[in-house]
Amino acid sequence: MPTKIGLISLGCAKNRVDAEMMLYTLRQEGFELVRDVRFADVAVVNTCGFIEDAKKESIDEIFDLIRLKKSGRIKAIIVTGCLAERYGSEVMKEIYEIDAVVGIGGNNRIADVVRDVLEGKKTELFPPKEDLMLCGGRVRTTPFYTAYIKIAEGCDNKCTYCAIPMIRGPFRSRPMDDILNEVRELAANGVKEFILIAQDTSRYGEDLCGHSMLPVLLRELCKTEGDIWFRILYCYPERITDELIDVIANEKKILKYIDIPLQHCNGQVLRRMNRHGDRESLTALVKKLRKRIPRLTIRTTVMTGFPGETEEQFAELSGFVQEIRFDRLGCFAFSQEEDTPAAKLDGQLPEDLKRRRCEIIMEQQARIMDEEAGKLIGRNIRVLCEGYDRETGCFYGRSKADAPEVDCRVYFIAGNEKVRIGDIVTVRIVDTLDCDLMGEMLTGKEIS
After folding, report:
1. Is there a single domain that holds both residue 180 and residue 109?
2. Last residue of some domain: 374, 401, 425?
3. In a shared domain, residues 245 and 345
4. Are residues 252 and 266 both part of a single domain?
5. Are 71 and 40 in contact (CB under 8 A)?
6. Cα-based torsion angle of the residue sequence 227, 447, 410, 320 in order, rounded to the nearest 10 degrees
7. How far is 304 from 263, CA to CA, in rounded Å?
8. What is the residue range of 65's domain?
9. Do 367 and 386 have their domain in common?
């Protein structure tokens, strides 16, 4: 009987892609993959280590696996991912029940590590970060109609609060031909939505030819056949060029959706973050985007409680969020991460103050999104069907304005029409439910 492997991946979609590549390697090496780690011989936990809450989630997951190991359900535990890369040998020293710790550069050797732990060998493997695979096969863990496409790895932006450069290493773009080939193959096999990800997608190609190649990549991707969507995440504001705006505006297969992590609007706070811009320049960018790309959905992320953030600076951020009325917004409280420049800055704020400011921003945003959702009543929108809710008797899915896991849902009834998971259908909105939408499916209608 082949050895059974269960893998849990935590954190961001970029980490998920790494996990999918490890699963492919393990399957190619003859191991059997199981969805539930309780039925595995070896459990792999692909950890996140970006901020304190993510580290806690990773450690909690490890201790859940330790309980399974002590009860005899699993034989060995392997820790991979960002927590392993960031803390190295300390992970096994602190949690002796772990059998192996593997840095991100060792992902391609995961099968050897499994064989080692099954022989009782305690293993630590930390090759250079740059050994992390950018290309290769994957066992996708997303629904069949959606795929994340990682176009680059690492980061050179050096924001003062961020540990990613020390964890993931320098920015490295994936070869364009490899991206295009993967997308074509996935589209031919039924994938409808492709989500482009990297630490900074807008920087794609800079390391290859000295300037951003994201517009070129997008144009090439749009030549892929089929009724498919391309969604762009993680574009830095200072790298959103007129060329990129034109491509998003004119290419029909690119969703009118862009994720721009702004973090703040106050110029002094942004400079301490080693980021660019101020309220005036960021407001001008948003107005420009909305003017040139009709019905654009803008998603952003902001941070509260950065060291030295005054009440006035927080009030400016709050006013900015109210003024701009972002279509989608996430907020998190500053996390004082060791070995980052921001961790050593004067003016560290109390945890409860940072979190309360975060709550205020999210309460504002909830009101904005609820009001904007109401304006869609009577409109027809395209929806990617993701499932059926037996309690409500409705299908549900996401519109072009909604990325998976972080945004909203559309619930709809289909009458006597046949709907399959993964279909893209037209829905007339008739009501709202908090920030979600309620509607009824139409046939033979074009989106208004």
Report:
1. no
2. 374
3. yes
4. yes
5. no
6. 100
7. 8
8. 4-131
9. no
Torsion sign across C-alpha atoms 141, 143, 144, 148: negative
pTM, entire model: 0.92
**How many other β-carbons are positioned within 10 Å of the β-carbon of residue 61?**
20
- Given 334, 357, 374, the domain boundary residue is 374
Q: Would you give per-residue pLDDT tens digits along the chain (448 residues)?
A: 789 999 999 989 999 999 999 999 999 999 999 999 999 999 999 999 877 788 888 999 999 999 999 998 999 999 999 999 999 999 888 998 999 999 999 999 999 999 999 999 999 999 999 999 999 999 999 999 999 999 999 999 999 999 999 999 999 999 999 999 999 999 999 999 999 999 999 999 999 988 999 999 999 999 999 989 999 999 999 999 999 999 999 999 999 999 999 999 999 999 999 999 999 999 999 999 999 999 999 999 999 999 999 999 999 999 999 999 999 999 999 999 999 999 999 999 999 999 999 999 999 999 999 999 999 999 999 999 999 988 888 999 999 999 998 999 999 999 888 899 999 999 999 999 888 999 999 986 444 4
**Helices (DSSP H) in 139-194: which residue ranges?**
164-168, 176-188
Q: Which residue has the tokens 């959702």?
A: 373
* Locus of tokens 């060995």: 76
- Residue 299: how many CB atoms within 10 A of its CB? 21
Say if residue 254 is in the same domain as residue 280: yes
Looking at residue 321, which CATH number applies to its domain?
3.80.30.20
Amino acid identity of 90? E
What's the CATH number where 416 sits? Answer: 2.40.50.140
Which tokens sit at 115? Answer: 């064989």
Handedness of CA 253, 403, 328, 311 (dihedral sign): negative
